[in-house]
Amino acid sequence: MADEEDDYLSMTFDDPSSKPGKETSLQRTQRLKKEAAERGRVPSKKELAEKEKAARDAALATQLDSSNKGAKMMAKMGFKGGALGKAEGARTTPIEVNMKDDRGGIGMDSEKKRKVREAAEQLEDHQKRQKVTEEEYRERTRTEREERRAEGQWWSAIRTLESFETGDTATKNEPGTESENQTDDGKAPASAEVPVDRKPLRSINVLWRPLVKQRREKERERRMRYDFEQSLPSKRDYEDTEAEFEDKVALGTEVEELDDQEKDPELDEYEALSFAERLEKVIKELREKYRYCFWCKCSYPDETMDGCPGLTEDEHG
């Protein structure tokens, strides 16, 4: 009896619609309603655009054959098939159509691309300029510091060279060291009797000529300012007197013009060097001509300069 009893929990029921056979009236009614609703539905713009694009791509991908209306018209004009043109690898499919969806002009896309490309190039250039590594910054800072230090040493060296060539070397020698620029009676040589400020600028050694040029420029400015202040009769006529003073300065009649206003190619070439190179030249001049070491701060009795560690500051510790 137990085997003959039905197991209702394991029973399955077949879907009547899945069985092949005649369509029922209910199924037919539902199908007709769906088809009518599909035909009556208005497609969206996106669906229409996709449908048009699919149809266009399918038409453009179709090669020319005898069934094509365009091919039939071309055959009447003598076209026998194949590619258009004489070159190998010519086109056998129609040229693609690029649809324009926006309302911009024909060259609008090219102009936008150009602006975007220029903006990208400017951004890249700006990033390159701003991209300074820590090592580059340290190297640049070190170079600038060494250049400023060399500039200060160069000014000190040319003052020392000037003192030797003008005969004033008492403060540049250690006690007990006799200066080479002094005579036996302790007086300066005859060349030192002529004031440096009265000499033509080009006759001065180019190694310390910038020092004299700077000194003369400061003196000229001082004299111009002094003469201007002396020429002021009262505050009331200050503006008129100042205008007259500027006219005199412009004409060169107020202050005596010196020869350092002329072009000096030798000085220009010397000043084009770096401060380290100028310093090296001045130190070499002091050693060879006066046997004086700028780093030791003393003169030596002979050319061997026995006791001097070397030419550079590093050698002197």
TrEMBL record:
One cellular component term from this protein's GO annotations in UniProt: kinetochore
Biased composition (Polar residues): 166-180
Residue stretches of biased makeup (Basic and acidic residues): 32-56, 98-151
Superkingdom: Eukaryota
Region named Disordered: 1-70, 93-196
GO molecular function terms listed in the Swiss-Prot or TrEMBL record: nucleic acid binding
Domain G-patch: 66-111
PANTHER family: G PATCH DOMAIN-CONTAINING PROTEIN 11
Name of the protein this chain belongs to: G-patch domain-containing protein
